[in-house]
Structures are given as C-alpha cells and as structure tokens.
Amino acid sequence: MNIILIGPPGAGKGTQAKRLVVERGMVQLSTGDLLRDAKASGSDMGVKVAEVMARGELVTDEIVIGLIAEKLDELQWAGAIFDGFPRTLAQADALQELLSARGEQIDHVIELRVDDAALVSRITGRFSCASCGEVYHDTTRPTRVDGVCDVCGSTEFVRRADDTEDALRARLMSYYKQTSPLLGYYHAKDRLNVVDAMDEMDAVSQAIETVLDA
Ligand code: AP5
Ligand code: ZN
After folding, report:
1. CATH assignment at residue 103
2. Inter-CA distances, 200 with 17, 166, 210, Å
3. Each residue's pLDDT tens digit, 24-40
4. Is residue 32 within 6 Å of ligand 1 at its C-beta?
C-alpha cells in the first residue's frame, strides 16, 4: 500500500508517518528530510537548496523528483508513505509515472487538516533529536525525562532553520498556492480522505488507521 500525507507545515505529517513506519513497517519518504540530509552533506545541491528552504520557498520540481526517483529505486517494496511529496501538480504527475513504471499506485491520499492559527505554536515549539530524528514539542510532546530522547537516549536536540514565524508565513503561502490544488486533483481521482488533525496525536493516528483499513 502506498499513501500520501498532505497538509500545511506543522500539520503532523512527519509525526504520523513515523508512527506508520513503526505500526505497519512501511517506509517513510520525506522530501524535507532528504533535502536536509543533502544540506548536511555539504554537497553543491545541498548548499543551493538550504537557502531556498530557509526562505520557506519550494525547491525545484527537478531536484525533488530526482531525489524521490533515486529512493524508489532502492525501495524493497514494503509500502511507501510519501511525506511532503508531491507538492506541485508536476510532482504529482511525475509520481504517478514513477509508480506505474514499477507496477505500483497510490492507494490513499490523506489530507491532515489543521487551522492556520494552530500552526504557529506547533512550528515554533518543535524540536527533534539530533541523533535519531524523533520529533518533539515543547508542550504537546515533551521528552519523558527532561533533556533525554525517549527513543535513543541522546541528549542533543535541534530546531529547524525554517521554524521561524517569517519562514512559516512563506511556507504557508507556498502550501496554499502550489500544493493545495493537489487536493482537487486527488479528489477527482477518488483517492482523497480528510482527517481532522486538530485532534490530539493518538486520535489522528486512529483516524488514519481507519482510512487505511477501510
Ligand atoms: P518539510 O520538511 O516537508 O516541512 P513542512 O511541509 O513544512 O512540514 P513540517 O515538517 O514542518 O511539518 P509536519 O507536518 O511534518 O509536522 P510535524 O509532524 O513535524 O519541508 C521543508 C522545506 O523543504 C519546504 O519548505 C521546501 O523548501 C522543501 N521541500 C520539501 N519537500 C518539497 C517538495 N516536494 N517540493 C519542493 N520543496 C520541498 O509536527 C509539527 C509539530 O507539532 C511537532 O512538534 C509535533 O510534535 C507537533 N504535533 C504533531 N501532531 C500534533 C497534534 N495532533 N497535536 C499537537 N501537536 C502535534
Ligand atoms: Zn533520539
């Protein structure tokens, strides 16, 4: 089974994708993570995309489609969760081609719907484990022991360069202008499901499980 998680920045795509990896053994393909890895590697492409990401704008279709195509070649097909991809109609068309060339398709598209007002506190309160990448939040998902990652025990945490109010405004603008048209695209293909992502994390996971089991 292959699914797409769509939603604005801070909707909970990464959080829910990681839960599905644990619960269902699916593979998370996050273009945001792949781009941050490229930045961390210091490659020419990584340096180029870092500035675009810090401004909250979209990286070119060519770069992200290339990253996904590379990952699909490595995938032992256990079911993929596309997290933050596709984000434009061109990316959606490319994904369809990449999948059908492999005899695969998208089974469910899940829109995580959240009020804009909730996103500021979700984004500005987010931090992640520097070692394993587990995502936390200052108030809604703190570590169980202060300063220690629940998953791997690391005591180092990071905050993202684009998790500022200014960059968030630009990211939201990109979402509404370039990504939200995909909701109509997948609705027309009868693949779209809407989940209320204002709810607390466990309830959102439950709603996603219900869609996947339907
Ligand atoms: P990307 O990394 O994809 O960022 P994003 O879409 O802005 O999404 P986020 O990762 O910020 O949020 P999320 O929905 O995963 O929320 P999370 O689970 O962390 O992209 C970053 C940049 O890369 C883009 O701006 C662009 O430049 C570039 N890029 C990436 N993909 C691209 C593409 N396809 N094309 C072009 N450019 C691309 O949750 C947020 C916080 O809220 C956490 O602290 C979490 O603990 C908390 N939380 C989660 N769920 C709940 C809940 N139900 N209740 C309360 N708190 C919650
Ligand atoms: Zn960790």
Report:
1. 3.40.50.300
2. 15, 26, 16
3. 999 999 999 999 999 99
4. yes
